[in-house]
């Protein structure tokens, strides 16, 4: 589906209900169990309407991921714009992990399902890569800006640091979801210390 078509579709109330129902269903049943019948019933629409708007279950999953990731990207970009120090960046990263694990576990579940599906569906793989790259690019740009201003000092290329930080976040989110009784505080602090070796205060901090 072209991006302008996606925008048109998601502007409708029924389409938004379908996307929300799919997100909820995947979190509870996984992709395989989230049939159009289940999603249509939960969204309060006909099964035919799902086919009309999205064509396939895989495309609907892509739209769910695209919408959620766009919301998260906009929020992260706004927070990054406020960051001025290494402490600000660490705080943003920690808050993101806590928010994902405690308030948005279905987002991690959905990404895992998309990853599995992407091994068989090139379209899903392409979309997943694009969503991930957008996050990395936003972090990369802000790191470069802060380094240029002398507020931080990077021990690796901004793109490398961005990849590491976001990768840490994804990995820890998954780990904590699978082991909710684990020592989140201790592990997060250790990861923050490790990242701090790559992002240090600059001369103008």
TrEMBL record:
The keyword Repressor applies. Coiled coil: none annotated. Residues 12-72 form the HTH tetR-type domain. Residues 35-54 bind DNA. It comes from the Bacteria. Keywords: DNA-binding, Repressor, Transcription, Transcription regulation. The keyword Transcription regulation applies. PANTHER family: HTH-TYPE TRANSCRIPTIONAL REGULATOR YJDC, TRANSCRIPTIONAL REGULATORY PROTEIN. This is TetR/AcrR family transcriptional regulator. It comes from Patulibacter brassicae.
């Amino acid at each position: 589906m072209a991006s302008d078509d996606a925008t048109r579709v998601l502007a409708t109330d029924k389409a938004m209900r379908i996307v929300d129902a799919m997100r909820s269903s995947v979190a509870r049943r996984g992709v395989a169990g989230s049939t159009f019948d289940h999603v249509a019933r939960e969204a309060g629409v006909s099964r035919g309407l799902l086919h009309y708007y999205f064509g396939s279950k895989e495309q609907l999953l892509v739209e769910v991921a695209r919408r959620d990731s766009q919301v998260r990207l906009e929020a992260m970009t706004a927070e990054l714009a406020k960051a001025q120090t290494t402490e600000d960046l660490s705080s943003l990263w920690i808050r993101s992990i806590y928010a994902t694990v405690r308030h948005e576990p279905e987002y991690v579940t959905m990404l895992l399902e998309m990853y599995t599906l992407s091994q068989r569906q090139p379209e899903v793989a392409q979309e997943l890569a694009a969503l991930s790259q957008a996050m990395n690019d936003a972090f990369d740009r802000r790191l470069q800006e802060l380094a240029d201003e002398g507020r931080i000092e990077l021990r690796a290329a901004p793109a490398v640091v961005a990849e590491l930080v976001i990768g840490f976040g994804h990995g820890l989110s998954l780990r904590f979801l699978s082991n909710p009784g684990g020592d989140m505080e201790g592990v997060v602090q250790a990861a923050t210390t490790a990242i701090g070796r790559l992002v240090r205060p600059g001369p103008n901090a």
